[in-house]
Design goal:
single chain, 376 residues, alpha/beta, DNA polymerase, domain 1, TIM Barrel, 2 domains, two-stranded antiparallel sheet, 12 helices, 12 strands, disordered N terminus, binds S-adenosyl-L-homocysteine, binds iron/sulfur cluster
C-alpha cells in the first residue's frame, strides 16, 4: 500500500503524464525521481546520481549518465523526454544586458535576458548576475504597452523549459547566475504549478541551489494566485507590475485591472507582506502623458508606504507598433523625487544598453517576422 505522500506525488506525475504524454525528466522533483527509481527496482541512491547528472554535470542525454546501468538508462529514455532548448540568437555584449533567443523542441521561440552586475534590485547585490526568465510563449494579458502580448498567447512553458533557460545561458556564457527574476515573456502566476515546480528545482540543493531570496516573481496582479504564492513556504520575493496608481489609469493600460482592481490587489499584497520577510517591489513603467503626473506619484507613494514596498521606476522602452513614449528626463526625475520626499525607497533605471533592453518579447517578434519573410 503506498503512503499518502507517495500517492500524492505519484498522482502529480500521473497528472503531468496525462497532460503532456511523455514528460521531461527535468520536470520531476527529487521525491518523484526516487519514486521512479523504486518503481524500476533500482537502489534509491540512483535518484541522487540522476539529479547529479542533470543539474551538476548537466548532461544532455541519458546516454551520458555513464554510471547508470545501460538497461536502466534505456528504460528512462523510454519513459521520459530529454528536450533541448537551443540558443539561436544573442544580442548585446559581454558587459551589457544580453538577450538570448531560445528555440524549444516544438519550434516555439522564447526570450531570456542576462543582466550583468546591476544596482541592488530584486535581492541582487552589485556583484550578482541576474537572469530574467520567460514562463509562457506569448502572453494572454494584453497590457497595452508590452510586446509580449502582441502576438497573443501560445502555451505555458513546462518546468524543464523554465529551468533550462538558466542552464542554457550558463553553458553559453560560462558565467554563474545567482539571481533569478521571473520577468520575461508571459505571466508567471498564470502558469502557477509549472512555475512552482521550476522554482523548487532552481532552489533545491539537489537542483541549482539558488536561495529563495534570490528568486523574484513578477506579476501583473493575479490576486488569487498572489495569495497562493503567499501560502507557499519558500521566501520568494514578489514584484508587482503596477504601472498605474489608480483604477482610472490602470484600467487604461492593463486589462487585468478590470478583474482585480487596485484595492483588491493591494489587499492581497498586504497578505503577502504579512507572510514573507522580504519587502515587495512595485514596478512602474513611466509612460509620457499616461501615468507620469505628480498625482500618480503621490498615490503610488501612499501604496508603497502602506506595504513598505520599494519602487522601481522604468522609463518606457519603445515597442515597434505601439504609440507610447517615455517622459523627458526631468519628468522622470521629478516623479522619483516625489516618491523620495514621501520617504519611499525608489530607484529610476538609468543603465546603459537600453537599446537592446526593450520589452521582453521584442526579439522574438522580430525574429519571427524575419523567419516568416524568409519562408514566404
Ligand atoms: N507578466 C509579468 C511578468 C513579465 S514582467 C508582469 O507583467 O509582471 C515584464 C516586465 O516588463 C513587466 O514589469 C512589464 O511591465 C515590463 N514591460 C513590459 N513592456 C515594457 C516596455 N515597453 N518598457 C519597459 N518595461 C516593459
Ligand atoms: Fe503579459 Fe506582463 Fe506583458 Fe502584461 S506586462 S502583457 S502581463 S508579460
Amino acid at each position: 500500500m503506498p503512503s499518502a505522500r507517495l500517492l500524492a506525488t505519484t498522482n502529480a506525475v500521473a497528472f503531468l503524464v496525462a497532460a503532456n504524454a511523455k514528460i521531461d525528466i527535468r520536470s520531476l522533483q527529487f521525491q518523484e525521481l526516487e519514486d521512479k527509481v523504486r518503481e524500476f527496482g533500482e537502489p534509491l541512491y540512483r535518484a541522487r546520481q540522476i539529479a547529479d547528472w542533470l543539474y551538476q554535470k548537466r548532461v544532455q542525454s541519458f546516454d551520458e549518465m555513464t554510471d547508470l546501468p545501460q538497461e536502466f538508462r534505456s528504460r528512462l529514455a523510454e519513459q521520459f523526454d530529454f528536450s533541448k532548448s537551443a540558443i539561436v540568437r544573442v544580442l548585446g555584449s559581454h558587459d551589457t544586458t544580453r538577450k538570448f533567443l531560445l528555440r524549444l523542441n516544438d519550434e516555439s521561440l522564447i526570450e531570456t535576458v542576462l543582466i550583468p552586475a546591476s544596482p541592488a534590485l530584486y535581492g541582487s547585490r552589485s556583484d550578482r548576475r541576474t537572469i530574467c526568465v520567460s514562463t509562457q510563449v506569448g502572453c494572454a494579458y494584453g497590457c497595452k504597452f508590452c510586446a509580449s502580448g502582441l502576438d497573443g498567447f501560445s502555451r505555458n512553458l513546462k518546468p524543464n523549459e523554465i529551468v533550462d533557460q538558466i542552464i542554457a545561458v550558463e553553458r553559453e556564457t560560462g558565467e554563474k547566475i545567482d539571481n533569478i527574476v521571473f520577468m520575461g515573456m508571459g505571466e508567471p502566476l498564470a502558469n502557477f504549478e509549472n512555475m512552482m515546480r521550476a522554482i523548487r528545482i532552481i532552489n533545491a540543493p539537489w537542483g541549482l541551489g539558488i536561495g529563495a531570496r534570490h528568486i523574484t516573481v513578477s506579476t501583473s496582479g493575479l490576486a488569487p494566485q498572489i495569495r497562493k504564492l503567499a501560502d507557499e513556504p519558500l521566501q520568494i520575493r514578489l514584484a508587482i507590475s503596477l504601472h498605474g496608481a489608480t483604477d482610472a489609469v490602470r484600467n487604461q493600460i492593463m486589462p487585468i485591472n478590470r478583474r482585480y482592481n487596485v484595492e483588491t490587489l493591494l489587499a492581497v499584497c498586504d497578505y503577502y507582506a504579512s507572510r514573507k520577510k522580504q519587502r515587495l517591489t512595485f514596478e512602474y513603467i513611466l509612460i509620457a502623458g499616461v501615468n507620469d503626473v505628480d498625482e500618480q506619484a503621490r498615490a503610488l507613494a501612499r501604496h508603497a508606504k502602506r506595504l513598505s514596498a520599494k519602487v522601481n521606476l522604468i522609463p518606457y522602452n519603445t515597442v515597434h507598433g505601439l504609440v507610447w513614449s517615455r517622459p523627458a528626463q526631468d519628468r522622470q526625475e521629478k516623479f522619483l523625487s516625489i516618491l523620495r520626499e514621501h520617504g519611499v525607497a525608489a530607484t529610476l533605471r538609468r543603465e546603459k544598453g537600453h537599446d537592446i533592453d526593450a520589452a521582453c518579447g521584442q526579439l522574438r517578434l522580430q525574429t519571427k517576422r524575419e523567419l516568416e519573410t524568409a519562408s514566404s
